Amino acid sequence: MISVVILGAGNVATHLFRVFNKTENITVKQWFNRNLKSLDHFKNSVAITNDLAALTDADIYILAVSDDAIADISGQLPFKNKLVVHTSGCVNIHDMDKKNRRGVLYPLQTFSKAAPIDFSNVPICIETLDKKDYLLLKQLALSIGSPTKRVNSDQRKVLHLAAVFVNNFTNQLYRIGHEITESESAEFDLLKPLILETAKKVQNMSPYMAQTGPAKRDDKKTIKNHLSLLENNHHKEIYNLLTDSIKLTHGRKKL
Amino acid sequence: MISVVILGAGNVATHLFRVFNKTENITVKQWFNRNLKSLDHFKNSVAITNDLAALTDADIYILAVSDDAIADISGQLPFKNKLVVHTSGCVNIHDMDKKNRRGVLYPLQTFSKAAPIDFSNVPICIETLDKKDYLLLKQLALSIGSPTKRVNSDQRKVLHLAAVFVNNFTNQLYRIGHEITESESAEFDLLKPLILETAKKVQNMSPYMAQTGPAKRDDKKTIKNHLSLLENNHHKEIYNLLTDSIKLTHGRKKL
């Protein structure tokens, strides 16, 4: 049995609580949040507290709080030599107070409050200073069915950065697709199967091999037509920059 | 029974032949290509020809050829008053020779040579000058299980443009994610579940609602960290432009 205390009440904290709570060999001994109201919904399933001094004994303390709060809360913990981990993609492991054993449990996935999460689709990147702590965190992640990967700080940071490209920026391209189609009363819904297929394609093929379209072919006529259709200058700029990027990748243009 | 002649031997032509050939109420009467060798593999399943003068009678002639060849081939057809359609997202319906009835059958999906296509995931955008022709093309598309949508030229053109954003440009963001992770020997594979989840999310939620991340929160510290990690100036430019785009969309920045 692995015992855990969760600190924080955001999306990651809540999804972790839910999955831990239904996993046989994990027990959530306590859930801390500054604002107790956020935990009110769960008070019948777990001991809740808003008092750091009242934290109970556990194998792992998980700081699922905002990046800026990690260093501060780690310094206020009223114990030492315990395993304390944060869940951030970009906060340095050494930013946490060294009075405790330190680690990172970074779930590489997008979490919505509403949608349930299948943790077998959540790769968990683990970083620790101590080998024994790594094994315990790996056991915790495997217990909820997640694939795991040991990473160092530099790797975790580039994964977080790359996640912004493939998730936030990609989603913004979907948004622009939405705006463009709406401008002519065309249906964004018609693009949804294409969006899904594009994501599926790179599950088994490199993005390099999966590329198609006018930029890769350097099809000047189509590119010109597209630019003339774009009324929004910001969209034009994005079209030009990503077209150049594809041309560079596929040898149609030199820096 | 709908009879069809296919012209061209690219990805779209080949996938259409395959699905038509196994559909009960569609018969492919002939397959034309300038270069007969490309059709050699299919010569036992269908009559093949490289001679436009030898084209046989059919209900629909499908010009699945490159954009630049559509006008030319349509002018060379040795018959008139037949239904002739092209499959391009951006060629004007009036670019085809008016001696025949004209239409467009634009499949809004990415086609790979190797991977089989499930046509129930291929919305087919139909444009015709004549209502009766529209009904025939709709029947053809429904026979292969595709959802259909009647669109006008302007709508088809913006759908094609939006497809470049959500498919080609998105795929290029995956490629950049690949380059960034490889630069630190991190595994691109770890990002694949996130890529798929990002695409799935907008199947039932608008991209606007689905957005998360540092740009939407205007998290200056993380944005600064990310920019300092990016060594490639071109990637930096893309990061800045898409971050600004998200900020504009979510009211964090004004034009």
UniProtKB/TrEMBL annotation, chains A, B:
Start and end residues of each Pyrroline-5-carboxylate reductase catalytic N-terminal domain: 4-87
Pfam families reported in the protein's UniProt record: DUF2520, F420_oxidored
SUPFAM superfamilies registered for this protein in UniProt: 6-phosphogluconate dehydrogenase C-terminal domain-like (SSF48179), NAD(P)-binding Rossmann-fold domains (SSF51735)
InterPro entries in the record: 6-PGluconate_DH-like_C_sf, DUF2520, NAD(P)-bd_dom_sf, P5C_Rdtase_cat_N, TM1727-like_C_sf
Residue span(s) of domain DUF2520: 122-245
Gene3D superfamilies: NAD(P)-binding Rossmann-like Domain (3.40.50.720), ProC-like, C-terminal domain (1.10.1040.20)
Domain of life, source organism: Bacteria
Protein name as catalogued: DUF2520 domain-containing protein
